[in-house]
Amino acid sequence: MITYVDNVKDVKEYNKMYEGVGWGKRDEDIVKTALEKTVFCVSAYDQGEIVGYGRLVGDETCFLYVQDITVLPDYQGKKIGSHIMNRLIEKVEEYKKVSPELRVYVGPDFGKEEFYRKFGFITRREARLGDGMILRTTPKESELWNWEDEIDEKELEKAIDILDNDGLIIFPTDTVYGLACNAFSDKAIEKIFEIKKRAKYKPISVLTDSVDKINLVATTNEIEKKLIDKYMPGALTVILNKKDGVSDLLTAGLDTIGVRIPDNKIALKLLERYPYPLATTSANESGESDGVDVQDFITYFDGKVDAIIDGGKTKLQKASTIVKVENGDIQVIREGNIKIED
Known about the structure:
It is built from eleven helices and 18 strands. By secondary structure, the chain is of the alpha+beta class. It has two domains: 2-135, Gcn5-related N-acetyltransferase (GNAT) (Aminopeptidase); 143-334, DHBP synthase (Alpha-Beta Complex), CATH 3.90.870.10. The strands form two sheets. Strands 8, 9, 10, 11, 12, 13, 14, 15, 16, 17 and 18 form an eleven-stranded mixed sheet that branches. Strands 1-2-3-4-5-7-6 form a seven-stranded mixed sheet, with helices on both faces. The longest helix is centred in the N-terminal third of the chain and has 19 residues, at 80-98.
């Protein structure tokens, strides 16, 4: 009779399992360290001898990895692996009740994809996020598009439709990834503040692709025009006087608005295609590091936004310089990649 025991973290037991499937004995120090990082495990026994094993590794509040779902050759076909996996998933669901944003992964485990699909996993290649698999348990999943090599025109049209219908997207710029919506949609702007947990007193800047579209939301003087002509497209945000019709929600009640034209082919293609500027803030939870790669924020934002565009790691990996012209002088509000020359 097969019996199952939770949380057996014994080096000798682990090595018995490895030797039993022909993988050889592991270095004891390495195994000990690995088991210390294990948050939960399940072992199957037959008459006191280990015959199956599986574990969860990681942080049960943010992410978990399913590892080492293994059954001895003589015991395969007895659904031991499925029983172990079901127990691990039960534990995952317990964790997710406390931390709904918890993400669960399976590392590259070639030949076992169909096994994991039975438990709700999808391949990361299907999600265009690399090797391995992800457990899909969010009530709504974000579209995940990979435009690093080529911009998909059909997906571009979907992005435009999302923006037209008060939706949110995340896309790469030259500096960091941006969380964006139509700058004239209060409903969508409210969503950004809610999802980012951003304080309402912090304004949100806009991105666009041209001076003509900047003119939809702001006015410019001669110095500001020169800054735009010299540094855009690029990593410079200029604070301008906003026009009537621009939402006070977007500008936190201020009479100014930050504008920028990014230097990134994906961002520019999207901005060229969309008729209005996009209210855009960095793709991260407020107070956390800016996202420069999809992996930096996928755990937090998947299921909360309508689409995420993967363009690879951003070129500059640092937020833009912010300046404001006051009484004819250029004031640097935030230092970034660009250094303003006289």
